[in-house]
Write a structure and sequence with these properties.
The structure is a homodimer.
Chain A (H helix, E strand, L loop, with lengths): L1 E2 L7 E5 H18 L3 E3 L7 H7 L6 E3 L2 H9 L4 E4 L8 H9 L3 E6 L2 H9 L8 E7 L13 H12 L3 E8 L10 H24 L6 E4 L2 H4 L10 E4 L7 H5 L10 E11 L4 E4 L3 H4 L12 E4 L4 E10 L4 E5 L15 E5 L3 H5 L4 E5 L4 E2 L1 E4 L5
Parallel strand pairs in A: 2-17, 3-10, 4-5, 5-6, 6-7, 7-8, 8-9, 9-10
Antiparallel strand pairs in A: 1-18, 2-11, 11-12, 11-16, 12-15, 13-14, 13-16, 14-15, 17-19
GO molecular function, one term (chains A, B): D-serine ammonia-lyase activity
Pfam family, one (chains A, B): Ala_racemase_N
Family (chains A, B): Belongs to the DSD1 family.
Chain lengths: 373, 373
């Protein structure tokens, strides 16, 4: 039996009770709206974690082909690769097809469709293709109202070895929605604009098998989606301080933390030095409200006002938001703390294994994760 | 023969000509001052890279025990672990000692010395210990003028299985020195304050075998160090935009870049979307002057004014600093670019392998790296 206190720090710790509770919350929401969930596995990139929030034979979403290969190796068959596909990745996609994986790829512009069409005879089986929509003027995607949407879909549909499957959208702008009302409005916009695209395509004789939307804030909002076929979301399983700042979760729901050890102090500055720097925490400052993360004691209880104010590669500096002196008996040399992450995807991305705990004292499991691209 | 253009992107590329040139520059500087260099290998964490800038039997500096084990496995014997040692790492240090590695550890406070002294009979061989000094009021370390320095050294010296070896300092404040004059002044301060500590210890009958200082800006400054025994530095081998902003190097010296592929555009915003997000670039904004990095063409030529303005996990957004429209023929779908990093340590830390090129077209070697803690 390994104790958390015996781990080499920094170490990434998963509170499995919280992970289970968060996963159940999203599944309940999807059941309520009557839609299947296609979890985005990019946060933890771990099949053991996915066994809780995306149990086989769940459909999943990935952000890299390395994730696709790793999850396919564990039996996941229905995989959406949600980043615009480029020619240097065709061969890797074809390898997945050859291995029997029902991978779906995304494109959002005519040049991407031209390139894919020209190369389509390369694919050993029909490749499922969705078109990414821009529903929130946020990042990528094509306008649901555009003529180009229809011509792209037709070109895909006509190509040998390509199968036009539908549309996907991600309302990334929901991360800027600070109220439940704004999140609900964004969910409505994400859903309605995506449904418009699907209707236009169906009217043009190009029905969409996949009409996919989602982000954690919109998926958990009060809006009841209609006209779509599935919901995607990812960070809900662990949550993080960005989600807590949006009131999508409570700080006490955050299932991922970084275990760290006190290596020293700078008493005149009221600083506590720990062995979690940006290599262990990531450089993600999230909402810019909590430095590099909030501090809890070794059991996960938030130490009010204490946060990681600065980081170097393997050093973190903890101080109180009101510059309070270091209390006696707290933060002693060699004692352990945990840091709640601004952005769970970025923090988890710094680790290849996670130490799972159910009692906040012992390690019940060690999970692995996909790496690279 | 693998072409860079065939790589799955994002990929981390090393321009070996630049790496060799940068390494030679630092070695020449150290030869000029007549001091040995103990390179910090935390930037690339790669034995194949170290073969150029820290060839065996060079002494090295590491930031994690995982680096220590990885480099020890390649034959490195004289290793300084430069992060304050805590009790949860004693067993891993002892394993290195048992494997014949002459590891040196660092402490900077009496509690750390107390803990180490109490546990010292654990170590299978005498463990070399240095005391970290605070020479610039920047992060960790104990004041060179303090009585505590002497009492800590004596306590280490008296302990069974501990060997007091000397002092180390790192003028991290040099990263805030924007002129050559300020860097030289900081080098003088770093060196003189460290030498004071060594003199005081020698006078107290505790001679220092190791009197170690360094940071890339101070090591490359005009100051001629005396009274010390070695210079440490790390990022000089690759350099980065932070170092270029300090005029420690030119942008054209930067040996590390991230190869990325254009996945689409948002023409109305003059955005180019690429497949390098913060997972491939890191979230490090460096001097806050270049977003998430400057853009070059596939051959490494800087595209003036183009930078990565925003990132998501696997998406980067490139735009011009003056919001210029996307020029015809540049940034076409599927074309490749390279991103120069703000902070090479953070960007390299996102990768487990590096693609090395000498001609900016073909991959001559693939290097691995240490991972984890």
């Amino acid at each position: 039996m390994t104790l958390l206190s015996a781990l080499i720090t920094p170490a990434c710790v998963i509170d499995i009770n919280r992970l289970e509770r968060n996963s159940e919350r999203m599944l309940t929401k999807c059941r309520t709206v009557g839609l299947p969930l296609r979890p985005h596995v990019k946060t933890l990139k771990s099949t053991q974690a996915a066994a809780i929030y995306a149990p086989l034979p769940s459909a999943i979403t990935v952000s890299t082909l390395a994730e696709a290969r790793y999850f396919a190796g564990a039996g996941y068959q229905d995989i959406l690769y949600a980043v615009g596909l480029t020619p240097n990745k065709y061969e890797a996609v074809n390898k997945l097809l050859a291995d029997g994986v029902a991978i779906t790829v995304a494109v959002d512009n005519p040049s991407a469709v031209d390139a894919l069409t020209r190369a389509s005879s390369l694919f050993c089986k029909p490749l499922s293709v969705v078109i990414e929509l821009d529903v929130d003027d946020h990042r990528a995607g094509i306008a649901p109202e555009s003529e180009t949407l229809l011509s792209m879909a037709k070109q895909i549909n006509d190509a040998e070895q390509l199968a036009f499957s539908g549309v996907m959208a991600h309302a990334g702008a929901s991360y800027g929605c600070n109220t439940q009302a704004a999140q609900t409005a964004m969910a409505k916009q994400e859903c309605e604009r995506t449904a418009i695209a699907a209707e236009r395509l169906a009217d043009a004789g190009l029905p969409c098998r996949v009409v996919s939307v989602g982000s954690t804030p919109t998926a958990l909002s009060d809006y009841k989606q209609t006209g779509i076929t599935e919901i995607r979301a990812g960070v809900y399983a662990t949550f993080d301080l960005v989600m807590a700042d949006l009131n999508v979760c409570a700080v006490e729901d955050i299932a991922l933390s970084v275990l760290t050890t006190v290596i020293g102090h700078q008493p005149k500055k009221n600083w506590v030095l720990v062995d979690a720097g940006w290599m262990g925490l990531s450089r993600d400052k999230g909402s810019n409200n909590h430095g590099y993360g909030l501090v809890t004691d070794a059991s996960g209880k938030v130490l009010d006002g204490w946060y990681v104010s600065m980081t170097n590669q393997e050093h973190g500096i903890i101080e109180h938001k009101d510059k309070l002196p270091i209390p006696d008996g707290l933060f002693e040399f060699g004692s352990q703390l945990r840091i709640l992450p601004n952005h769970a995807c970025a923090t988890a991305g710094q680790y290849r294994k996670y130490f799972v705990t159910r009692d906040n004292q012992t390690v019940s499991e060690v999970w692995d994760s996909a790496d690279g691209w």
